[in-house]
Specification:
The chain is α/β, with parallel strands linked by helices. The protein has twelve helices and nine strands. The strands form two sheets. Strands 7-6-5-8-9 form a five-stranded parallel β-sheet. A four-stranded parallel β-sheet has the order 2-1-3-4, with helices on both faces. The protein is globular.
């Protein structure tokens, strides 16, 4: 597998390899510092970023390479050059490209027309690099045997909800997504993909609309901002009203397992999707998640550059 375009592209073996390598890079960030020596990696972002930009540039540097950061308005693609032409040009200069953008189809087209690895750093539909960081964090807390545990996402049925279901299905876990019904529920296509994978792995994928039922007995409760980049501002009032029952509060955390953790991909809006006492409390692992954005992107670059990801 040349690229990492979608979470669902990964096999169980790929995920296990990436998680193990990320854990190694957490202990020794410079253990593969010759991998990208004298090479460049393009980091193209049409969406602003804190964690993805910092983690990806640091990951490239730790592998011995030079990151080239490119904003959305800095390429000729903004003046009509095709994505296919852009992919071929970047392939002639760089060893890999990490992209953070809106449309999944743009990422797919880059992958189809490049000769270098293309890595999805976030789209409106998916977020594979974040989920790898999440699962490194989960395993640091609970170990690799997650039988009998439930991992719950509560809030907007967005790209994080999609990736949460799919990655959990790949790893054979019991994952739950609790969202409102209607327009802020996860896409039916993503649910179907996760459940198809679950049939092969023995995972359990649930879509719930009662946040308290979802939180009861959970080992992890995860949430994301309610207004994502690109969401129509005119929908704010309606969306926040629909999602307000899904805020992660101290009461909701009290329903979870005694050793439960709180997770968030950040940035966070305290007092909106999560109470401050939860995200800043002792059960929160958000800073470890953020740290593992670097270790997992470094692992993806390392194995993709070496051609060691097999795909499903």
């Amino acid at each position: 597998m040349k690229d990492l375009l979608k979470t669902a592209d990964l096999s169980r073996e790929d995920v296990e390899l990436l998680l193990a390598t990320a854990a190694r890079f957490a202990e020794d960030p410079f253990s593969a510092k010759e991998t990208l020596a004298n090479r460049t990696v393009a980091i193209y972002m049409t969406k602003p970023s804190t964690r993805t930009r910092l983690s990806s540039e640091t990951a490239v540097a730790h592998l011995g390479g030079t990151p080239i950061f490119i904003r959305g308005d800095e390429l000729q693609i903004g003046r009509g050059e095709t994505i296919a032409d852009t992919a071929r040009v970047i392939s002639g200069f760089c060893a890999a490209l990490l992209i953070r953008t809106y449309k999944q189809s743009d990422v797919d087209e880059l992958g189809a027309n490049s000769s270098i690895p293309i890595i999805n750093g976030l789209t409106d539909e998916d977020h594979p690099t974040q989920l790898l960081a999440d699962w490194v964090t989960i395993r640091e807390v609970f170990g690799s045997d997650v039988s009998g545990r439930k991992f719950v996402y509560i809030g907007d049925g967005n790209n994080m909800a999609h990736a949460w279901m799919v990655m959990g299905a790949i790893l054979g876990a019991h994952v739950v997504v609790a969202t409102p019904t209607g327009k802020w529920a996860p896409k039916s296509e993503s649910i179907a993909i996760a459940r198809k994978i679950a049939e092969q792995t023995g995972a359990r994928v649930e879509v719930e609309h009662d946040p308290e039922a979802a939180a009861t007995g959970a080992s992890a409760i995860y949430t994301d901002v309610w207004m994502s980049m690109g969401d129509p501002e005119e929908e704010r009032r309606e969306k926040l009203a629909a999602l307000s029952p899904y805020a992660v509060t101290s009461h909701l955390m009290s329903l979870a397992a005694r050793d439960a953790i709180f997770m968030h991909c950040l940035p966070a809006h305290r007092g909106e999707e999560v109470q401050a006492e939860v995200i800043d409390g002792p059960q929160s692992v958000i800073w470890r998640q953020a740290y593992h954005r670097r270790t997992t992107i470094q692992a993806i670059l390392y194995h993709a550059f070496r051609g060691e990801l097999q795909g499903r």
